[in-house]
Amino acid sequence: MASNPSPAFAYVVLYVKDVAKSTAFYAKAFGCNVRRLDESHRWGELESGKTTIAFTPVHQRETDRITGAVQDPWSGRERPPVELCFAYVDVDAAYKRAVENGAMSVSEPEEKEWGQKVGYVRDIDGIVVRMGSHVSPPKQYHQD
């Protein structure tokens, strides 16, 4: 009996108010390349390494009927239950670029105790985006 290969994580779908606007915002604020924006503006995709970030409208008859309506809990003290994370060599420059291009500052980059520099912003739909330095993989420990 053949074993099933592990699945590859394909993409994250963000439900947004305006697909074209969010696609352009992410390209400009975070430096992602636009892979696709369909003519109906009901689907957009960004290249972001091995995983694609996709955008689709908050309200869609197709998915609302199948999986339920998307909830929008965002206020000043609430946020959607998702966080995107981008890794950068120069977190300070990436953070500055994001804020200059419309991201809302949440927390400026700072060194964390685990050795990563991390800052947070919100996108134009209130989604939290973590911007951090690359983290080295943990050392392998062997028990004797």
UniProtKB/TrEMBL annotation:
One Pfam family in the UniProt entry: Glyoxalase
Start and end residues of each VOC domain: 8-134
Protein name: VOC domain-containing protein
Species the sequence originates in: Vitis vinifera
Lineage of the species this protein comes from: Eukaryota, Viridiplantae, Streptophyta, Embryophyta, Tracheophyta
